[in-house]
Each structure stands twice: as C-alpha cells, then as structure tokens.
C-alpha cells in the first residue's frame, strides 16, 4: 500500500512512516546537492538567514538537466546521498524533516534522523525522465551560479519514494542485506 503524504512534513506524518513504506509526496520540496549544502551550512554557522525555511522541509538531492521546450524541468533523478552526509546532521537539527536521494547514509545522519524526528527517502536512480513527470513547477531560488546544482523550489505531485531510514532506527539497506544473507 502506498502512503500519500504532503509537505511540509509534520511529526505526526513522520511517526507514521516505517522503513520500507512506499510513499507518494505532494507539495513543495527543494533541490540541493553538495555545493549548495556547503553554502547552507556556512549561512547557519554565520547566523544568517537561509533562502528557504528548513521547518518541515524536504530536500531532494538532484541536479536536473535543462528542460526541453514546454517542459517544467529536464530529467531529475536522485544523486548519491553520502556526499551530503557531512552537512545533513546540522540541517536536520535546524528543522529539515525529509531527504530524498539514493544510497546509504552515514551513522551520523541516521542518528540525526532519530534524534530530530526526520526521515530519509530513496528514489529510483535511472528513472530520471519518469520522475520529472511528477514535478509540476520549478524555480531557482538560490545559488544560480551553481547551474544544475542551484537550489530550486519544486512543486511535486505523487512523487514516488521509499522510506529507507525512519525515526525508529530502521535502515532498509541493512534489512535487505540481512534478508539476502538468510536466503
């Protein structure tokens, strides 16, 4: 069964999500990769305002391709999440509630997810063109100089993802390894 969730994420929504749950996300999400994450963390460390509120926010680790004529966005598949791991714990501590990417997260990120009641979703790598169909609007809101890695505000409808790390310490990748070793 697919759980339909909306952004911004609330603690009630997050409490209901368990590792392995399939979700469809509707609402505003933001894009950011490692260069943008570095800048966001520097702003926090300087006590300056961020280009968007982290409260209940979801960040999608993506660097989309340019849109074709008439399209909102180009292909928009997830990038490998571990490159954001040195920045993610601080962002989660400051209110970020969801992250979307691919691949495992560090122990520091998993601990921050549990402590601050957040969630990490995986999306399907290699399905970038299909995922972009769920993006209904996109606008650059910060760091335009980063090109595809600029921070964008996206409006998504029924964006598919899977809960990998939940607030209960679940880790879909670890559970998958254990099941494989048993068979």
List the helices and strands and how they pair.
Layout: E1 2-6, H1 11-15, E2 22-31, H2 34-46, E3 58-60, H3 88-93, E4 98-101, H4 107-116, E5 119-122, H5 128-132, E6 135-142, E7 151-165, H6 172-182
Parallel strand pairs: 1-2, 2-3, 3-4, 4-5
Antiparallel strand pairs: 2-7, 5-7, 6-7
Overview features:
183 residues, alpha/beta, fumarase, 7 strands, 27% helix
Description:
By secondary structure, the chain is an alpha/beta fold. The protein has a single domain, classed as fumarase (Alpha-Beta Barrel), CATH 3.20.130. The chain is built from 6 helices and 7 strands. The protein has helices at 11-15, 34-46, 88-93, 107-116, 128-132, 172-182; strands at residues 2-6, 22-31, 58-60, 98-101, 119-122, 135-142, 151-165. It has a 5-stranded mixed beta barrel. Strand 4 (98-101), helix 4 and strand 5 (119-122) form a beta-alpha-beta unit. The longest helix is centred in the N-terminal third of the chain and has 13 residues, at 34-46. The radius of gyration is 16 Å and the shape is globular. The mean pLDDT is 94.
> What is the N-to-C succession of helices and strands?
EHEHEHEHEHEEH
| CATH fold call | fumarase
How far apart the termini lie comes to 25 Å
Overall tally of structural domains: 1
Catalogue the unreliable spans: none
Sheet with the most strands: spatial strand order: 2-3-4-5-7
Task: Give a summary of the structure in a few sentences.
With 183 residues, the chain is α/β, with parallel strands linked by helices. The protein has six helices and seven strands; from the N terminus they run E-H-E-H-E-H-E-H-E-H-E-E-H. A five-stranded mixed beta barrel has the order 2-3-4-5-7.
């Amino acid at each position: 069964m697919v759980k339909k969730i909306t952004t911004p994420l609330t603690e009630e929504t997050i409490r209901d999500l368990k590792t392995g749950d399939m979700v469809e996300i509707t609402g505003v999400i933001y894009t950011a990769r490692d260069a943008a994450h570095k800048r966001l963390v520097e702003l926090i460390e300087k006590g300056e305002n961020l280009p968007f509120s982290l409260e209940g926010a979801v960040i999608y680790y993506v660097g989309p391709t340019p849109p074709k004529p008439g399209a909102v966005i180009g292909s928009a598949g997830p990038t490998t999440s571990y490159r954001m791991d040195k920045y993610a714990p601080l962002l989660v501590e400051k209110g970020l509630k969801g992250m979307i990417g691919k691949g495992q997260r560090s122990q520091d990120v998993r601990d921050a997810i549990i402590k601050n009641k957040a969630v990490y979703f995986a999306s399907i790598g290699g399905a970038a063109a299909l995922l972009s169909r769920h993006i209904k609007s996109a606008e650059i809101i910060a760091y335009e100089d980063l090109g595809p890695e600029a921070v964008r505000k996206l409006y998504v409808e029924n964006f598919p993802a899977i809960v990998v790390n939940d607030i209960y310490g679940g880790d879909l990748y670890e559970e998958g390894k254990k099941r494989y070793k048993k068979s």
